[in-house]
Amino acid sequence: MTDHSPNTTHFGFRDVPVADKQKLVGQVFTSVASSYDLMNDLMSFGIHRLWKRHFVAISGVRRGDRVLDLAGGTGDIAALLKPVVGADGEIIVGDINAAMLGVGRDRMTDRGLVSGLRWTQLNAESLPFPDNSFDAVTMAFGLRNVTDKDKALADICRVLKPGGRALVLEFSRVQSELFSKLYDFHSFKVLPKLGQLFAGDADSYQYLAESIRKHPDQQTLKGMMERAGFGRVDVRNLSNGIVAIHRGYKF
């Protein structure tokens, strides 16, 4: 059930026409691309790096696997997955935003990570791959920015091989009431000021904080994945539920 009309969707705390959300989100990430990792460090006190390592560690990805990393623009997850899949595997990094892909591709090239990596501008709601193409699909901190999440989850399920798994790392619902108040203060009072100070852009970071609050909570997203066709969906909270890892299998 939504709190907006069928013709509108949320962009942070604002309702906007469905057709406009993709463009508005694109403007946010084009604006923040060059400072994205610095701001992630400031926003999470560097903990996002531990979250991402844990995400890859429990992914079940193995040597030789073919993995699609969605919303993978800056290459953080791909860099962690590369030694896991090895020379026999392949990682396709997909992102809707060309600026984010450019930042990630340049960074990975500077590190000498070129072979076995492909970079593709795409929309997660309509993936340009055949059915049963991937052993795993990962998506870290991207699903909340997708306009039609149900459509994206269904298409992720479609491109997975039978027995393949989808893993979503995303901000979620904080479990402790006291911690939630501290988190709200950091998100709405501190974060936009950090965005202004270090990225010259308070509005984009205000949106990012708002988008986290509008994202489905743990159980809601679990249900969405099950309706999209995933089985054995499990949820793992990290840092008191600031983020959660959802994992589901295609049977």
Q: How would you portray this structure in words?
A:
The chain is of the alpha/beta class and 251 residues long. It has helices at residues 18-32, 36-44, 47-57, 76-85, 98-110, 149-159, 177-199, 202-214, 218-227; strands at 8-11, 14-17, 66-70, 90-95, 117-121, 134-140, 160-171, 231-238, 243-249. It has one domain (8-175, 205-249): Rossmann fold (3-Layer(aba) Sandwich). A seven-stranded mixed beta sheet has the order 5-4-3-6-7-9-8, sandwiched between helices. α2 (36-44) packs antiparallel against α7 and α7 (177-199) packs antiparallel against α8 (202-214). The model has no long low-confidence stretch (mean pLDDT 88).
Return the average pLDDT rounded to an integer: 88
Radius of gyration: 17 Å
The total count of helices amounts to: 9
Strand neighbour order, sheet with most strands: 5-4-3-6-7-9-8
| CATH architecture classification | 3-Layer(aba) Sandwich
User: Percent range for helical residues?
Assistant: 40-55%
**CATH third-tier fold name:** Rossmann fold
> Strand portion, in percent?
15-25%
Summing up helix and strand content along with how strands pair, one would put the structural category as alpha/beta
SSE pattern, N- to C-terminal = EEHHHEHEHEEHEHHHEE
Uncertain runs are: none
Shape call:
globular
Biggest sheet character: 7 strands, mixed
Number of domains: 1
Question: What is the name of the CATH superfamily?
Answer: Vaccinia Virus protein VP39
Number of strands: 9
Q: How far apart lie the N and C ends? A: 27 Å
CATH class placement: Alpha Beta
